[in-house]
Each structure stands twice: as C-alpha cells, then as structure tokens.
Amino acid sequence: MNAPVDVSFFTRAAKPLTSYRKYWAARFGTAKFLPTSRAEMDALGWDSCDIIVVTGDAYVDHPSFGMAVIGRMLEAQGFRVGIIAQPDWQSAAPFKALGKPNLFFGVTAGNMDSMINRYTADRKIRSDDAYTPGDVGGRRPDRAAIVYSQRCKEAWNDVPIVLGGIEGSLRRIAHYDYWQDKVRRSIVVDAKCDLLLYGNAERAIVEIAHRLAAREPVHQITDVRGTAFVRRETPEGWFEIDSTSVDEPGRVEAHVNPYLMVSDQAKANGATCAKEDEAQAVASAAETAAAVNPAIKPLTFVPNPALQARGRIKVPPRDRSVIRLPSYEQVRADPVLYAHANRVLHLETNPGNARALVQAHGEGATARDVWINPPPIPLTTAEMDHVFDLPYARSPHPRYADEDGSHDGATKIPAWEMIRFSVNIMRGCFGGCTFCSITEHEGRIIQSRSEESIIKEVEAIRDSVKGFTGTISDLGGPTANMYRIGCKSPEIESACRKPSCVYPGICPNLNTSHDPLIKIYRRARALKGIKKILIGSGLRYDLAVKSPEYVKELVQHHVGGYLKIAPEHTEQGPLTKMMKP
Ligand code: SF4
User: Fold this and answer.
1) Correct CATH for 421-578 of 3.40.710.10, 3.40.50.510, 3.90.1150.10, 3.30.750.210
2) Mean pLDDT across the stretch 189-199?
3) ipTM above 0.85, yes or no
C-alpha cells in the first residue's frame, strides 16, 4: 500500500493505514450511518462507543465532511464510533448522550473555523450556517473547539481529548485572531486537549486509537507525526535550535498610503509635499516604539556548545532537533517576531525534512511549551483510495430529513447541496501563496487518488445519489490541475526547503504533465448517464498554460459557458507579497 506511485515519488516510510490488526469490535460490522443516539447504538447491538466524535457541523456521511472521513476510517479499523453533532453547549449533558467513550473524544469545530462560520468579515453575526439543516445560524458556539473540549472534560474528566479539524490546525501556534484583533495562545493551551492533530489526520488518529486501545497512557504518546501537545520541558537527547538560525527576523514594512500620489503631483509642479515622507515616518515611529518597549526582546542565536567537536559544529540529526520559536509573549508584543515565527512554521512544512517546533507559553510556575511534531507523512494513492472508498452513505443523517423523509426541503444542508454531485480527486498544494492556509493544513505534497477510484465515485453518484440529473458539478480539489503533479526527484523533493514550487517561476524540477488529468476528464464524460462534467475548483493558470491540450479540453468540455479567471491582483508589488505570478 505504501509503494511509490506515479504521483509524486515522495518516500512514504510510514505504516500503511490498512496494515493494523483490526480492533476486536470489528465483529459488529459496518453501520449504515454512524450512530448519533443511544437508540441507534442499541439497534447496532453496541453497549458503548470506543470513540465519540463531537463536531460543530451536522452529520453528513460523505467524504467531504471531516467527521465522516475520520469516523469511517476508525470504523474500518474495527472501532465503534459515535457522532455527537452540533450539541447544545450550555451544559455537559448533551456530551453524555452516547455514554462514556472507551478510548477518547475526538473534537472538531467542523469543516470551517467556527469564527468564520459565525461572523462576517465586518464582525457581524451571521444568520445562516451552510453546515446546518435549513441553513440556520447559531447552532455552534464561538471557538467551538475550545468550548466542546471543555464540555467533554466536564462530562468525563478521565477521557482523553484528541482535537482536530481546521480550527485546531490553523491555531496550533500563537496566532493572530482577526475577531479579537489580538494574538491568541496556541489552541492546545486554551482547549486543554491531550493531543492536537493538525493537517490530514488519518495516519495519526489510526495510530493513536490503536495505542490507546492497547492501554498506552495518552501522555506517553508524544512521537506521532502531525500532533501537538503541551510539555513542561524538552526531553533529554533532543537538540534545541534557535529559530533565528533558520530565518532572520526582519522589519515590518510600513503600509503605503494610497494618497502618496499627491506628492508626485507636487513634484511635477516643482514643489514638495509633506506626505512624501509619510511612509518613512510611520516606519520610524514603529521602530522607536519597539525600542522603548521592554517587552520586546531581540532574539539571539547562541551555538549549542554540546554540538562543537574538534572546532567544527556538527549538524544535529533532524529527527532529534527541535526549533524553538519566539514565545507567545514575545510574538504577542512584537509583529516582527510574529512574522518570523510564522515563516519558520512554513519553512518546516516539507515532511521530508521538517523538524519539530516548540513555543513557550507563560512564565515562571505556569510556563509550559507547546510541542509540535513534524507534519504527517502524505498518504499514498492506495491509501487515498482507501479513504475515499469507505462505505459512506453519501447523504445527511436521516435525523435531518423533513416530514417527507427528504433532505431537499426546509431541512436542506447547503454545504451538502454544494458537494452532492462533486468528486474530490486530490489533496494538498505546493503553491505556497502567503494569504492561503491550504499548505498549512493539507500539506505541500500532492496526494492523488487513482483514476479507477475517481471513476468509481462518479458512477456511485450516478447510480445512488437522489436527484442526480447527469451533471457532475466538480472534479477537483484545492487546486484542480495539480492532480498527479510533483517533483521529478524524490531525493530533491525530500530535501527541498523552497516554500513554493511555482513562485517566482515554475521550478524546472516540477513535472507539469496534465496527461493523467486529461485522461480522467475524457473517461468520466464518456460514462453512460453522464451529460456534463464541470470543473468548479480553482486552477493554477500558470501551470495550465504549460499544457495547451489541457486548456483546450477544459474550455471545450468542462466550463459552464465561460472560463472565468480570478487574478488576485494586477500589480507586481502586492503580487510579490502574495507569492503570486
Ligand atoms: S520547488 Fe522544485 S525542487 Fe523543490 S520540491 Fe518543488 S519541484 Fe522539487
């Protein structure tokens, strides 16, 4: 299952997902829907759940919904998985609805960060929620991952909490929170979870579930890739590296005042204008403020004396190295260090060479470190197929149906409606755009499904999804045309430290062939009963133009009349900041 495949040759030295011995409860078989109540558990003959997934979204049993992917994945390992979807968070009682889980609570805010789900960009509360039956707002709390974790602890203090999902992933180190307009602590500290799983969590959660089932205490599980947790000190045998040796903290450029063009006019008239110096004045003021603020302490890199041998510094082994980021208190006080810490996080995203990170939170008696293990090893094509071929019901749970038993009326779930006839063909992105979180969450190595698995899903939609009229609304992923694109050399890919394979230009080592994708498009649209295949996901047009045949194929067969292009900007200045061509 983990043999190299023709997608990216990235070495995947990890235990295959299907190689674990199944848990004894596999004898209960596969549930049509994972149970959401005691009555459903009784119908399945279960006295208890091994794992309970608590989520901020309505339960839709489809591979586009996190709780279904993780739930079905664990079920395939033999565990009994229950779902508590959108519980009332005012008390711990709804978190006891399925009884006490034998192994752990899996907590997620849902497919979106709960603050984005709850508020508009103007910080106004939303009245709708695309992940709730009837598109009704208010069914989840602010910062749902933290609130749910607290309620699970109140329900059963001795049950481990494993936090996952995008809210946990993107808040794993100290981070700027737009809604509070301040830098918040790592969510690991605020949620008091035992383990945080970031990125694609299948590999980590399967290993953790089996280790907890083997009675290993959760606090001893500190070596799983893609996890973060709190620890008091760096254990023996690890080499600490100061983050300034990885990336040099730089100054923050002042925002350009759009009215500066007035000075150009003044210059043309032989006069000067005070606004000319405004940007510099802003920058100088910021620097002066930093100089007088004692909370801002410059970082210094001190070579580790333990590493010096015969006058030369030995490079510590990467798998025993941990990079110490500036502390939460430092990044909160200094935007330069904040930007530096984030750059280091991004530099350490290649699973081939990433090192562990550590960030201190608090001082004195309350001091503790948030330890972040390197990112998970990407799934192979066979493992991706396994994840997408699990026995999903491809429908919202029957509890959300209206009085006619339908999910298309008043209880329609808009997010389900959107992906109902679409197929996800890959994960990940190597673009590295600075405004985007895909790399931070899904990773920079493309993980693609096989052609067979994709075609099988198109046929399953055609044959089993109610309301299908012959149009597949999307055959895509984070970037639709990165399917099966990756570095030509596994050695170079493993060692590469570049944050993007396509900026400032397309790397000569990148294999840009679109042939496998063209083949899938042709095969899918030729299937009986398929009238149209649309490509709704975004494309990298700089990659697409490398294959005129692909563009022709796309324009002639897979767009709804117009090919829409959405450039993020037209000016070189902002584009360079975005790392966009
Ligand atoms: S930037 Fe170039 S060398 Fe590095 S992984 Fe991407 S294609 Fe390979």
Assistant:
1) 3.30.750.210
2) 97
3) yes
